[in-house]
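CHAIN AND CONFORMATION:
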Amino acid sequence: MTARHLTVRGRRYPLVLPNIRDPRLHVAAVIISVHVLGQVALHFHVSVPQILAAMAASAVLEVALTFRQSRTIVWPASAMLTGSGVALILRVVGTPADQPWFTGSWELYAVVGGLSLLTKYVIRYRGSHVFNPSNIGLVAAFVLLGSSRVQPLDFWWAPLNPAMIAAYVVILGGGLLITRRLHLLELAGSFWVAFAAGLGLLSISGHCMTANWAFAPVCGSDFWRTVVFSPEVMVFLFFMITDPKTVPTGRVGRIAFGVILALVATLLIAPQTDEFGTKVALLSSLVIMCAGRYLLERFVPQTSSTADTPGRFARRLLGGPHATPARPVAFLRVGSAGALVLAVGLAIVLAGLPARGVPIGSNVLAIEPSEIDPSTLPPIALAPDVTDFDHELAGAGIQAVVVTLAQNLELENQALLKRDPTILPTVDHGARLDEMRSRVASAVATGSVVISHYRFESIAAALLVPFGEQTGLSLGLAAQGTLTEETYDGAGTLVTSSERPFHATFAVRRATGARWLNVAVLP
């Protein structure tokens, strides 16, 4: 740091300005570069005023607190890093993408950024803060406010386009350089390897989660690949878990910290069924490990110890203090280590039972609706975001989706006419499934039922990205045409029939597997 003085009302105060060699400035440069990419190319749901509010609140608080403690005006490098980290991860429901000057909810960012910074001064032990400030602030925000108000940054940001490649280069390049300089590369590497192994076991067992960026549940190898190589996980391992003040000081301690953190994260992620829970579980694992850091340090060598090398520590574990352990002792300890690994693996598999796959509805598609002739469908207009997201939806792909929609609507009619709700889970999901079950129950109670036949004259497809609970990306099919409504009595006799024009958006999603299901009909 470069020390100068600032005169205020005739009194001189020491002034500490940033130093170009300060690693905190390098971390800030990486995070701000990601923010810039998010604003100009990656369509992040966060605005410049929101980012600045989090950074400014943190900075003002740190300047005030350090001045009160030392009567020195210090450049708030750590605070601005905390604020920018909060703004990178935090998303407020209702914030639009591609509106960089949107001013809504800026105060929430200021509150979360400021309170995150305060934890650094309030929660302390042995003269240092216990938790990574942005990490504990984000976890508190997600737990207290819930998924209806806030959500974390997605694991998946965009297809592998030039902007996404640039983001990976910035994160990986900056992360590797900074962690190597701070002697934290072993910590980051041990976490990532153990995390990949733990999630691999979880994926093999059939784990699934829903996400805002996927039409279908993300399962198995897709789940593993998406999360392990997520740019958000890279930010977590390079710039959140590697706070030098909140991790053990020795090499062995840092490697152990990374491995145990990965196992805790995997165990917390295992029962989660959506991306909100998965991401909060990942962030919460660091809160738990920071709280347990001092207990861990009792069992690992300190920095000044000659045993603070992974090889020596491993030999000590296998045979006690002797360099060459007795063979029976070594076998016993190797066996104990193997049993521990098996126990952890079993715990991961058992913890993942709530998210083990997504059951597909019973095969009631044997009750085929009337055949839908694709040649009778009108031309389908595709919004650019649809083909950018999934090129397979171009041409015949989107036509197949519309055919499935038409089949689903006819099967809904059959469920109403037969008063049979067991048909519905194969064609409907979420709000639409609840609505149709209610209509079937009403038909059973009253004996009268109204069914709808749609004749499409125009269709336009676009992505529907939900806010709030991360229940999955949907495809919106905005259609116009003619709606024929038929009323039948309890005996199945047609009572009345009428026609009228309609204009509605049919939301469809692969909520339980490969088949597109109706999830909503919107005005």
Remarks:
- Residues 358-367 have pLDDT under 50 and may be disordered.
- The longest helix spans residues 327-351.
- The CA atoms of residues 175 and 238 lie 5 Å apart.
